[in-house]
Specification:
It contains two helices and five strands; from the N terminus they run βββββαα. The protein has 101 residues and is of the alpha+beta class.
């Protein structure tokens, strides 16, 4: 998995966004300090549709609000978010490599 270290805010709560090398998947994980501790959403791209599932503990009203925000995401926004996670991961690796010099 690759982590977009900047995180993202959904329904006024902070989330970490991760992707993997396989295109078409995102994992959005609660930051464990808000009222949605231990909750995550998996988003996967199937053609021109984004399939969303979620699981965990937390305030149902908050996770419902996050789900609604994610549900409004279009394919282009999804692809942009994947690209951001991958770019942040590369920048993190470059930074670590430069520390060694």
């Amino acid at each position: 998995m690759q982590n977009w270290t900047g995180g993202k805010k959904y329904a006024d709560t902070n989330w970490r966004v991760l992707s993997c090398n396989k295109p078409g998947f995102l994992l959005i994980v609660s930051n464990n300090i808000e009222n949605v501790s231990g909750f995550y959403f998996i988003l996967r791209l199937e053609g021109d549709k984004i399939i969303i599932s979620g699981e965990g503990n937390g305030d149902q009203a908050v996770t419902d609000a996050v789900f609604e925000e994610l549900r409004r995401m279009n394919v282009e926004e999804f692809k942009l978010l994947v690209a951001q996670t991958q770019r942040a991961d590369k920048e993190k690796l470059i930074g670590k490599a430069n520390e060694g010099f």
